[in-house]
Each structure stands twice: as structure tokens, then as C-alpha cells.
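User: I'll paste a sequence; please echo it back and then give the predicted structure.

Assistant: Echoing your sequence first, then the prediction.
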Amino acid sequence: MASFKAFLKSGHPPTLFAAFLYFDFCFAIWVLDGALGPFLSKEFGLTPMERGFLVSVPILAGALMRVPLGIAAQYIGRKWAACIEMGTIIVSLCYGAFFVNSYNELLIMGVMLGLAGASFGVALSLGGGWFPPENKGLAIGIAGAGNSGAIIAMLAGPPIAIAYGWRMAYFAGAGLMIPALLVMLFAAKEPPDRTKEKFTHHLKIFTEKDSWVFSISYILTFGGYIGMTNFLPTFLHFEYDIPLATMGKYAALIAIMASISRIAGGWLADRFGGIRNMLVVCVATAVSSFYIATLPPFYLVIPALIVLFLALGAGNGSTFQLVPLRWVGSTAIVMSLVGEIGALGGGFIPNIMGYSKQRLGSYQYGFIVWAVLAIAIFIMYMVVKRKWETSWVGKGGMARHREEHSYESK
């Protein structure tokens, strides 16, 4: 308890809370179509591939919006970028509640929901910006635990849809954003770690190999998390015949594991190193994914999915313990870039699953793809480990002394 109090004193807790709430509620909106997927599928008579594409649209749209929002945050400030984003989301949800009447309009709505997914880099760099390097893993892990918003969508979305219709779930989402917007307006303070370099300076980050190592790694961990989370209700309902009334509860139980382990992953990365953590994450992801691909009985697939989500969440926390150590003054842009590529990868999961089911008769091939990717990323980290430990990070990926945290390509 004493060490946690010291952690809080080292930064600005109200801003950290505002960042968490902002990301949490945005995440709930981002995965709302995933929670409502079976309802929308039944109403509009969608095929497995159409179901997969519908669920993937918010993921892909959110991914593509992350870098533009990160760049805007670098210049107008993360607090104000977040406020403008939340206001736009509220308007978009009201549109969905009253004006969507066809599959094509659902796809347009999916693009609008994607705006909520763009919050990632802004929220994490805002939440961690007040904390010193040795505490950034935990701070960013707490802000990143806002991916627990998926639990809100999974638990609240289906019951609202059953009782009042899926349109009311969109309208309820608009009401959910209001308290997050108010907390951001009155509690958050812009951190002092934002640099105002020329735009061309920030663009250099896109050409650096390290940024792409993290981006590819994040395809596995966050891409796996968001893609699997969005597809869980559909997977459980159509593969295991879980009723509409209870599928969200199972999906929420599984998804919350990644939120818990994200905080733990950041904390463990502060103490043992983000690189070490990622190697363990890759092994756990590969093993659990290969097992789920066998499509075991329901009472065995749930524990396996829990292990998979625990690994993915820990990997998310570990990745963003490392990023602010590598890029000190441009975290909003770098996190947005890494988050964008990661989320784009997640957009492929529902499509892979839908294609696999419709063309090959089983969902298992999507899990096999993720297992193979985990093995490839394990090898990638082993290759870069030695170079990183001799240039900008300590052994295993631990933070060096604060005065050494200045390694950034010129």
C-alpha cells in the first residue's frame, strides 16, 4: 500500500483517472457492434462473412483514425483532443439510434463507432505523462485497463437489446460518454512531456525500425484482444449455441481478464523488463491458441480463452512500458502509430473467422493463424533484444536511470 501511495504521489492521479475513464467508455462504444453482432445478424439476415466484416469495420476505422488523432493531440493537447473526440462520439451514437435502417448504413455506423477506438494513444500518453520513467509501466497499464470498457458493452448491450431493441443500446452509449467528458474537462491537466517539434520531426518515427517492431508485436497482443473480444459473442453463440441472453456474460468474463492482466503486465514490466514479459506472452499465446483451434468442449474452451486473454492483456501492458522509454517526447504519436497497426491487425480476426467458417466450415483456422504469429514475434524479440539492451533500455527491458532516457533518433 505504501509503495502504491508513493506511485500516486509521483504523478497526477486525477489526470490518470480521467484518462482511464475516457478510454474505458470509448472502448465500450468501440466494441458495441461486437456485443450486438448476433442481434444485428438476425435482423438483417447476414451471412458469416457479412457478420465478420460488420464486426471488423469499427476496429479498422478506429485503427486508421489513431494516428491523425495522435498528431492532433501533439499540437492542441491530449486533453482537448479527447474532449472534441467524445463530443463527436455522442453525436454519432444519436445518429445510430435514430437513422440506421440497412446493412450499408450499419457499416457507416461502424465507421463512426471507430472514432471511439482512436482514443488509445491519447489516453495512454495522457495517463502516463505525469509519471516518471520507473513508474510509467504501471501508470500506462492503469490507463490502458480502460479496455475493460468491453465488459460494459458485453454485459449491458445484449440485455438492453433484448428489452428495448438494439437502437436503444446506441442511445444508452451516448449517455455513457457524458460523465467521461465532464471528468476530462474538470479533472485532467495536460502533462508536461509534450514537445512541440516540427511535423517532419514526428514523421521520422514512421521510418524507424523500432516503431515497427512494436507495431507488429501489438498486432498480436492488442489486435488479438480487440479482434477476439469483438468476435466472442458471435463465436460463442454460433459455435457453442450459447443463448443471446447469456453470451455477453461469458464474453465479459473472458474479456475482463485482459484488463486485469494489462495492469499486472505493466507492473511486471517495470520490475522485470518488458522484453522478458513479451517472450513469456508469446509462448502462452501460441500454446493457448493452438489448443482453442481444436475446438474443445465448452467447459474446456472457456479456461483456454481466459489464459489467452490473460496473455494478451499482459502483452499490451509490457509493450507500453517500453515505448515511452524509447521515445520520450513523442509518446502520443508513437502510441497512436503502434495502436493503429495493432488494431488494424485485430480487424482481420473477425474476417478470418468469418471466411474460415463460411468457406472451410470451422472457426479454428483463425486461432491457428494467431498461434503462428505468436511464434514469429517471439523470434523477432530474440533478434532485437541484444541491440536494445545496449542502446536505450536496461537488461530484459527494464528502465535505466532517468538521465539516460534520451535515446531518440535525430
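The first helix runs from residue 2 to 9. The domain at 13-189+204-404 is CATH 1.20.1250.20 (Growth Hormone; Chain: A;).
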